[in-house]
Design goal:
Layout: E1 2-8, H1 19-33, E2 37-43, H2 49-53, E3 60-64, H3 65-68, H4 73-76, E4 82-87, H5 96-102, E5 105-108, H6 111-120, E6 128-130, E7 149-153, H7 162-170, E8 178-182, H8 189-202, E9 208-210, H9 216-224, E10 228-231, H10 240-246, E11 252-255, H11 260-264, E12 274-277, H12 282-294, H13 296-310, H14 316-330
Parallel strand pairs: 1-2, 1-3, 3-4, 4-5, 5-6, 7-8, 7-10, 8-9, 10-11, 11-12
Helix pairs in contact: 1-14, 7-8, 7-12
C-alpha cells in the first residue's frame, strides 16, 4: 500500500525547526520501517492543488494540517481521493473547519486537540483520532545540585510566552540561575529586540543565552546540561519540548494550556514531574521557579517523578501504529500493521 504524504516545503529547514515538522519526518520513517511505501510531496506557497491533481484516483493521502487548513483545494478532491488530515495545531487556517469535515479521518496529536475539533467543527467523533508524538530514548541528565540551569525550547515569539518568562525571571534576580532560549530569533525580530533590551534594563541579560535554532545533536547536548525545562507557551497542542525533556529525566514548569498537561503527565504514583501554572500569570511562573530553585526536597521530588515518567513515554513506533490503524480503515485495501 502506498501513502502519499503532503508536507510543508520547509520541513527540513534547519532554521525553522518545529514540532510539526519533526512529527511528519519521524512518522514517515516509522511507517516505512513498518513496510509502508511513503511518497512525500512538498507543498509551497502555491498550495497543494497541483500535487493533489497529480495523484491517481482512490489514492490514500495524509495531509499536514498546515497544508490542509489554508486552502480549499482539498474540498475539490474529497470524492476522488482518500484524504486524511494530520492536524498538529487546531485553528491553523481559515478553511480548516470545512476541510476537516471533508476529510475521511482527522488525526490529532493530543486528546486536547481532539476535543477542540469536536467542539469547533462538525466532524463526527468516530472520524477524529489521537496519535501523540513519540520520543527517542535518551540518557538520564545528571542534573546540578542547585538546579539553576533552565531551558526553554521554541521560537522566540509572543505565542511562546517569552515575555512572561522574562517577567518571571526578573522576579528571581536574588537567586542563582541561567536560562537558555533555544529557537528561531527571526520570526518576530522586533519582539526579540524588545526582550533583549528589556533584559538589559532589568539587569539579567548576562544570565540569558539566546542560541537560535540548534541541530538535534546539539540540542540533546544542551538538554544533558540542563536541570529544568520551562515552557511558558500561550497555546500548545501537545508539548514536545516537555516530552523530549522528560525523556532525559528533566522536570518541567509549564503553562496549563492545551496539551501541556498530557505531555507532562504523571509518574505511576500520580505525582507531577514539575508544575503547571496559569496562563499569562508571570507571578505564578516565578513562584514555581522560585520553589524549584530554593527547595532541595522539591527538586528531588520532581526529578524522581520525571525519571519515572520517562519510562512511560511512547516511542515513534507507537505513534506510527496509531496512525497506521486509522489509515488501514481508510485505505482501499489491506495495509501493513506489523510492529515497527
Amino acid at each position: 500500500m502506498t501513502l502519499h504524504l503532503l508536507v510543508p516545503a520547509g520541513i527540513d529547514d534547519p532554521q525553522r525547526p518545529s514540532g510539526g515538522n519533526v512529527y511528519d519526518r519521524r512518522l514517515a520513517s516509522a511507517l516505512v520501517a513498518r513496510g509502508w511505501t511513503v511518497r512525500e510531496h512538498r507543498v509551497g506557497d502555491d498550495g497543494p492543488g497541483r500535487a493533489l491533481a497529480g495523484l491517481p484516483d482512490d489514492a490514500l493521502v495524509l495531509v499536514d494540517g498546515l497544508v490542509a487548513s489554508t486552502t480549499r483545494a482539498l474540498l475539490a478532491e474529497r470524492d476522488r481521493l482518500r484524504l486524511v488530515v494530520l492536524l498538529h495545531m487546531p485553528g491553523s487556517g481559515p478553511f480548516e473547519p470545512d476541510v476537516l469535515v471533508a476529510a475521511r479521518a482527522v488525526v490529532t496529536t493530543s486528546a486536547w486537540s481532539r476535543r477542540w475539533v469536536l467542539d469547533h467543527t462538525e466532524v463526527p467523533p468516530d472520524r477524529v483520532h489521537v496519535a501523540v508524538p513519540g520520543v527517542d530514548p535518551r540518557p538520564l541528565a545528571a542534573g546540578s545540585p542547585a538546579g539553576g540551569r533552565l531551558l526553554t525550547v521554541g521560537p522566540v515569539t509572543p505565542a511562546k510566552g517569552y515575555d512572561d518568562l522574562l517577567a518571571a525571571l526578573a522576579d528571581l534576580r536574588d537567586l542563582e540561575w541561567r536560562c537558555r532560549w533555544v529557537g528561531a530569533l527571526d520570526l518576530a525580530p522586533s519582539f526579540v529586540d524588545a526582550l533583549v533590551e528589556r533584559a538589559g534594563t532589568l539587569g539579567i541579560a548576562d544570565r540569558l543565552e539566546l542560541t537560535g535554532p540548534l541541530a538535534p545533536a546539539a540540542l540533546d547536548a544542551v538538554r544533558a546540561d540542563s536541570d529544568l525545562v520551562v515552557a511558558p507557551s500561550r497555546r500548545e497542542s501537545w508539548g514536545m519540548a516537555l516530552a523530549e525533556g522528560l525523556a532525559c529525566g528533566l522536570p518541567a514548569v509549564a503553562t496549563d494550556v492545551g496539551g501541556h498537561p498530557e505531555a507532562l503527565g504523571t509518574a505511576p504514583d500520580g505525582s507531577l514531574p514539575g508544575a503547571l501554572v496559569p496562563l499569562d500569570r508571570p507571578a505564578a511562573l516565578a513562584g514555581a521557579l522560585r520553589g524549584w530553585l530554593t527547595d532541595a526536597a522539591l527538586r528531588h521530588h520532581w526529578r524522581s517523578a520525571a525519571a519515572e515518567r520517562r519510562g512511560q513515554l511512547p516511542g515513534w513506533g507507537r505513534t506510527a501504529a496509531c496512525v497506521a490503524g486509522v489509515l488501514n480503515r481508510i485505505g482501499p485495501g489491506v495495509v501493513h500493521v506489523g510492529e515497527g
